[in-house]
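dumping this here so i dont lose it
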């Protein structure tokens, strides 16, 4: 009788301990995946390499840096957006989608410069993405963008992103990969490499073959579960320490 009771107690104890371990193992990853934060960058101005009033045509989402032609060596996988302007149109797109945006003549500096143009970047490091214009009927515009930016609330970001995206969390991979000469006040939903989400508000766009530029604000969502995910970890901003 004593032996049987001991065995029953042992089984119950072992089962309880196993259940606790399993619960702990399941709980931690869920918490990490659900932890998100947003980063707001203001007045990002990208310009043609020939425009001496601008730093350069490349945007690095992780840090908010603007980089010149020749400033991306060995960090190509962290470049999220590129801008270039001709005499009639301006384009904002992703490095990996530059050929999709427009027919590129050989003299396009940002593409053909040797060795710094995109033509010479390692193809495995080219970041592609999706960019969707937000229509007024989606009830999301400059005012809502400003509300999300001031809130510093990842949940509010997610709410408005879904609202402007037909309730879906992620953009369709078959969507557009660029915008052409956007108007001031235009809002775009962005998704880098099928993972990192963002909202972009255009402030101005100047089309000119030499002095072309674009200025925008952008809100980027980061996720704890993406910190080790390639290529998201090279794109999303790090979590800021709480003061």
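and the seq i came up w/
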């Amino acid at each position: 009788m004593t032996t049987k009771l001991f065995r029953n107690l042992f089984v119950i104890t072992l089962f309880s301990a196993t259940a606790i371990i399993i619960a702990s193992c399941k709980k931690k990853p869920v918490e990490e995946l659900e932890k998100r934060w947003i980063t707001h960058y203001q007045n990002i101005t990208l310009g043609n390499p020939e425009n001496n009033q601008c730093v350069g045509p490349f945007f690095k989402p992780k840090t908010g840096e603007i980089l010149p032609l020749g400033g991306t060596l060995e960090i190509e996988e962290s470049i999220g957006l590129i801008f270039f302007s001709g005499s009639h149109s301006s384009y904002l797109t992703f490095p990996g989608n530059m050929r999709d945006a427009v027919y590129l003549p050989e003299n396009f500096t940002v593409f053909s410069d040797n060795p710094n143009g995109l033509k010479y970047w390692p193809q495995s490091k080219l970041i592609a993405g999706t960019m969707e214009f937000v229509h007024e009927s989606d009830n999301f515009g400059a005012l809502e963008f400003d509300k999300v930016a001031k809130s510093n609330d990842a949940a509010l970001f997610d709410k408005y992103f879904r609202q402007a995206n037909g309730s879906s969390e992620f953009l369709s991979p078959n969507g557009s990969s660029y915008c052409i000469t956007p108007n001031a006040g235009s809002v775009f939903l962005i998704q880098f490499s099928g993972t990192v989400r963002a909202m972009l508000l255009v402030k101005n766009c100047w089309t000119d073959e030499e002095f072309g530029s674009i200025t925008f604000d952008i809100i980027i969502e980061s996720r704890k579960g993406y910190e080790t995910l390639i290529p998201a970890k090279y794109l999303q901003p790090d979590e800021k320490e709480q003061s």
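The first helix runs from residue 2 to 34.
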